[in-house]
Give the backbone structure.
Amino acid sequence: MKLQIIFITLACIVQMKCYAMGSYNEIGTIFRNFLQEYSSPDCTKYANDDEVYKSFPFELDFHSSKRAASETYAVKNAHGNIVVLNINKQEYVPPAVFCLTELRELYVHKTKFRTFDLGLPIAIERLASTLKYLTISDTPIRYLPEQFGRLIHLKELKLLNTGLTNLPNSIGKLSSLTYLDLRDNKLVSLPLTIINTLSLQTLVLDNNPDLRSIQALNGHSSLKFLQADNCQIERIPLNLPQLINLYMSNNSLTHLSNIHTLGNKTNKKKLFFFDNNSIRYLSPHIRQVNNLNFLNLNYNKLYILPMDIYEISTLQTLYIQNNDFSDKDLQEMVARFHRTHPKLRLCYSSKKSC
């Protein structure tokens, strides 16, 4: 009877909101939030962390010195409160987890959250004042609620093989975030607000096969390490002044225009990987990349290199195997590099190991 009353009430709310807003997306958000709030834990019934973890449907190991990721364990601080919690291969994540008062690190592996639509529970906001490290792997999480942006102390976020399709706009409010790993998911785009993550230095996007654009990163002021292998990205990002390492192997790139805007505010060595794309044209601006040290262009569709590349005095390694160079042009390029860069590690023939 109680459940029927809940859904009748919900139907009325949805109908009223429908007339008021006329947006199915907003209605969907209201629907999700309503059910999530209904299923959120009542933390007032727990006097302390001891009562919280004793309500869990599984045992916690507080004594293991190894702290292996394959175990379900917890670490307490001097006050007896849980600061680290690792949940591995349990039936579900107990909602009472979000009632822990000083949790700094939460790791969840192959353990489902109790939400009806495979979203991360909005109760995650209860950990906003303490949580700094969050990893969820091999666990279905299709989306993050907008409340996720309240985790302003979060430094490291890893969502690995969760089926994630999008990030909330509130991701830009994560002012302490330095490391973001979203590999092996189903992302189709990045929100424009990601540019506001002013502490972000490392972003990993490998194996998101539906991801075609990362232009939302254009102008990001702090990003140093970007890894986006095995996607369908069609253009490189622009104006990333602190970028040092860029991995974009096996994408859908056809050119590298404005590559000189990457890492142009730092003198640190640049390592760029663009192998297994469809690049036909290398911009003369390649010469303006600040301290370019390593460049991988294997398995593309290049038929010529710009003369400017011979003027890059900092280049130490160049891979150009399996492109569309004629034998004559390739021989001439190799001879020229031997004159201009006698110490260059040049990999140009598939018949010769490098």
The CA atoms of residues 260 and 289 lie 4 Å apart. The domain at 35-303 is CATH 3.80.10.10 (Leucine-rich repeat, LRR (right-handed beta-alpha superhelix)). The first strand starts at residue 73 and ends at 76.
